[in-house]
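Practice record 12: protein with manganese (II) ion.
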Amino acid sequence: MKGCIVVGEQTRFGPIPIKGELTKTLPQAREAGFKYVELNIKNPFTFKKGELKKLLDKNNLKAVALASGYPYFMENVSFTDERGEARNIAIKRVSEYIELANILESQVIIGSIRGEAPKNIEIETSYQRFLEALDKCLDKARQEGVNLALEPVNRYEMNLINTVSQGLEVINILNHPNLKLLVDTFHMNIEEPSIYASIRAAKDYITHVHIADSNRWPMGCGHLDFVKIMELFREINYTGALSAELLPMPNSQEAVRMIAEFFNNQGL
Ligand code: LER
Ligand code: MN
């Protein structure tokens, strides 16, 4: 397993322990001892093609995953938007993240980009629009040799794909080799009857993990049992990243210190 930390540009998306310009935050992650990062970047091509890879290499960092939620937060487009044109823009943006993931040998997270299914129409219509958009992105993902990591997100943030079993259902319907699952301990704590049973059920599909305590603070600050959770990840032979996507609480510096300490104690 790989200990990883989310690094991102300034945005209203909260659970990013290290926020700011990547030219400053990537050296910060390296100095804190990290080798793996997940990137939350506004525009996949803020940096010219290849430049971001150079910046990562210079800092001895590997980007194991790219978030793709910005087009939803910044441009108000998503896979479930009622406007066909807005759905097409969302697909185009995700395709750009996929191109960047190809350059970085990374994967792309499908989380917030699915949007909030509009309340005034049947949820089934939104679900079909989501499936159709995701399927188009999967065509691109196959061409680029990149995996997409579908993330169930708790009901208070999104109204589509809240549970691990709903995520597995999408994987089953689309049946595509490039579609995998991301499990987030914070969301699972809210939605799953048993975090352990859900991880076990999804074990063949998990390609990435978001790790945070029950209150989305660093591990050890809430009431999740990380002894049991870590034992289980080892038992199922999970070899991917545990990516700390959590609030910079009580402050960014202290959060980064606690995350690094947690991974060190785990021998990661
Ligand atoms: C949102 O809470 C979250 O967990 C993100 O990873 C969604 O992309
Ligand atoms: Mn997450």
